[in-house]
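Usage example:
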Amino acid sequence: MRDDRERFEASGAAVVLIGLGRPDQAGWFCTQHELPFTCVVQPDGSAHKAFGLRRGNVNQVTGPAVWLPWMRNQLTGKRQTAWRGMGDTAQLPGTFVVDTEGIVRYAYRSRRSSDIAPNDEVLAAVEEIRRRKAG
Amino acid sequence: MPKTNVQVGDPAPDATVLDPDDHELRLSSFWRDRPAVLAFLRHFG
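Running the assembly step on the lines above writes:
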């Protein structure tokens, strides 16, 4: 998502990153990465649960399918910020697109920590909402 | 808030979150005027 920030900005959607942890950590993250997105937290994880996102097992969080992409990112310079003890590393991520009526139009629940929604799919869902509204 | 399995076509749960200044926000405030992309992360880092 970070790599496609211009495309997300151009989409006209409100992009909200929802993390676990403390509010000031969300502010630090958005500032540190100069993200044009909104960073918020839900400290007890109830928002994640409300959307059906679960905590992963050991293989989903630390298995080869997780650390191989991480290692590739390290080698190619797409380094992730060192973990600073924020949030819950066992929580599995997910991405949802919601229209202006509050209806979910796209749902992606990650099967492991390194599994994230393809940006093209997310942006296509936003575009479809805009097309429906215009048409 | 109970654990659910929200599907495409379902109403999105209107959870309360905190902004960096510790102010409470409803998720619905993000999709009121334009589509919202909600990316749930494990942690910020």
